[in-house]
Structures are given as structure tokens and as C-alpha cells.
Specification:
single chain, 199 residues, mainly alpha, 2 domains, two-stranded antiparallel sheet, 8 helices, globular, Parkin_co-regulated_protein, PACRG protein
């Protein structure tokens, strides 16, 4: 007699080719790889004021699913650069970012989840309560992984130094959502993730 099959809630899902990769290979983005003494960065061939955020930002968010260089680097760094310099251009694009964020989280790939959580923190710091109406679409996957911490007993978990511990990153992200989301944020988070409480 065999037991029931595993439900597979934590099982990694396969990813197909992303629209980001297709558009990058076609040369649609005004970017190039720039090497300097501090490592790689993006050389933007167009000023941020001239970038079409409604076109570019959702495609870069689609690239969060990428795990191979240079696509993963360009997507991640491109998002952070655009969020840093986007100002008022970011808020109108938010509804178009939710589907790529959900796709990245639903892959259940640990590396992709960590990168997406860091991007979500940066996004919520830039747009504040404009993200609250979309919490109910983002939070279910975070609820699955919220308590996924490595138990090493008295050992040392070096992933904490690199901010790659999923459970801790989710807690950080939820606290950022709570802090930046205004009065309604806590209730929405608590409804979707009953075990949430700020540390």
C-alpha cells in the first residue's frame, strides 16, 4: 500500500522562453553590457525620461523568470534602474506588472523568488499605497513559502548574509508592504496571510 502522492506545492515549475529574451535578442531595448571595476552594469543608450515605461517595464518584469546570463542580469538590473529613475512614470504601469510578477513567483524557483521579492521591495518603496489593490494577487504564493526557513540547529546559515533566505525575505517584503501601503495594507496582508505579524 502506497501513501497519497505529494501535492507539489513547493515543486519547481518549468519555464519557457520569455518575451523579454525575444525582445532583447531582437535588439528592441536601448541597453548594452558595461564592465567596470565594480562589476557589470547596464549602459543605457537612451535617457530614462525618453523611455516608454508602459512598453519597457512590463517586458523587463517578464524577464524575472530568466535564470541564464545575460538575460537574468539585464532584466533584474534594468528593473532596478528604471524604478530608481522612473518617478511618476511607474504608477500608471503597475497593473501591467502584476501578471509577470505572478508568473515569476509561480515558477517556485528559489533563486527567481528571491530576486522577485527584492524587486517587489524596491517597487513598493517607489509607489507606496498604489500597489495595495494588487496585494491579493501577489500574496498567495508568499503565503506558501512564508515559513520556509532553513533549520540548521546551531549551524550558520550564510544565505542570510546574501539575503537569499526565502522565509526572511518574505517577512521583509511583507513588512515593506505594511509600512509603505498606508492604513489598509495591514488588513489586506493579514487577510491573505493570517500568520503575518511585524517583528
Amino acid at each position: 500500500v502506497r501513501g497519497p502522492p505529494l501535492a507539489g506545492a513547493f515543486k519547481e515549475r518549468p519555464t519557457g522562453p520569455t518575451a523579454f529574451r525575444r525582445f532583447y535578442l531582437r535588439g528592441d531595448f536601448p541597453i548594452a553590457l558595461d564592465h567596470d571595476t565594480k562589476g557589470n552594469k547596464i549602459a543605457w543608450r537612451s535617457p530614462f525620461e525618453e523611455l516608454d515605461y508602459l512598453y519597457c517595464l512590463p517586458l523587463f518584469f517578464d524577464g524575472l523568470c530568466e535564470t541564464t546570463f545575460p538575460y537574468d542580469f539585464f532584466a533584474r538590473q534594468g528593473i532596478h534602474d528604471m524604478l530608481e529613475h522612473g518617478g511618476k512614470k511607474i504608477i500608471p504601469v503597475i497593473p501591467h506588472l502584476i501578471a509577470p510578477i505572478k508568473n515569476a513567483l509561480n515558477l517556485r524557483n528559489r533563486q527567481v523568488i528571491c530576486i522577485t521579492l527584492k524587486v517587489l521591495q524596491h517597487l513598493v518603496y517607489k509607489v507606496g499605497d498604489a500597489l495595495v489593490p494588487h496585494y491579493h494577487q501577489i500574496l498567495p504564493v508568499l503565503n506558501i513559502f512564508k515559513n520556509l526557513n532553513v533549520n540548521l540547529g546551531d549551524g550558520i546559515d550564510y544565505s542570510q548574509q546574501k539575503r537569499e533566505n526565502i522565509g526572511d525575505l518574505i517577512q521583509e517584503t511583507l513588512e515593506a508592504f505594511d509600512r509603505c501601503g498606508g492604513e489598509a495594507a495591514y488588513e489586506v496582508i493579514k487577510y491573505m496571510i493570517p500568520t503575518y505579524g511585524p517583528r
